[in-house]
Design goal:
Structural class: mainly alpha
Shape: globular
Oligomer: single chain
Largest sheet: none
Number of strands: 0
Order of helices and strands: HHHHHHHH
Helix content: 55-70%
Number of helices: 8
């Protein structure tokens, strides 16, 4: 099971970051492609902090610990000045990663519907892809949700919010990740209900995670 969880982890981060790079390239910015990030090689997407965190939590989950895996990969380089609409297109690029994970979770969940014997193989893929997607949609820099938020806000508010998130986003994120007095982090308590909802929709035959 540990091998399956690690395989699911590798697939999740690779699909996530490659989707960012692919979408940026499609929208006119070749920066990620020229940097070698338009790739299915997981090593080029490895982030020492975020990816190690996700891998560690994935292994803990494989060993039976009741944790919600979350983390991030190395950010894909994007030059918004290559886009026709920098704010909107940057948001689309950021959204591409989480959407790719949710799409993959949906596709592998169909395998469990048609081949029930493979359900134990499918569960890690669903949990990790949904967890990575939901975590990254939190509207804080440097997560994808921060750029999505900037892209959908009216222009007069977007720059103020972006300035605030650029200055304090990483601090807020680490405070949310730190365990509270109850043992779980605020961010786990925040995203767990959403992950359980997706899990129940995708694999209704199994108990909540």
């Amino acid at each position: 099971m540990i091998i399956i969880w690690i395989l699911a982890f590798v697939v999740a981060i690779t699909i996530h970051e490659a989707s960012h790079a692919w979408m940026a390239d499609r929208l006119g910015d070749p920066t990620a492609r020229l940097s070698g990030r338009l790739s299915l090689n997981p090593l080029v997407h490895y982030d020492p902090v975020g990816t190690t965190l996700l891998l560690g939590l994935a292994i803990m989950r494989a060993l039976g610990a009741p944790v919600i895996p979350f983390g991030w990969a190395k950010p894909v380089p994007v030059d918004p000045y290559n886009f026709k609409n920098p704010r909107k297109d940057s948001a689309i690029v950021s959204l591409a990663g989480p959407l790719s994970n949710l799409t993959l979770a949906l596709l592998v969940s169909l395998i469990a519907r048609f081949f029930p014997l493979l359900v134990n193989f499918v569960v890690p893929f669903v949990i990790l892809n949904v967890s990575l997607a939901i975590f990254n949609l939190i509207p804080i820099h440097p997560l994808d949700g921060g750029k999505v938020l900037i892209g959908i806000l009216p222009k007069k508010y977007a720059y103020e919010v972006e300035s605030f998130l650029n200055r304090f986003g990483i601090i807020i994120l680490f405070l949310l990740i730190l365990p509270s007095f109850g043992g779980s982090s605020f961010i786990s308590n925040l995203i767990s209900p959403v992950i359980n909802l997706f899990f129940k929709i995708l694999l209704p035959q199994l108990p909540l995670v």
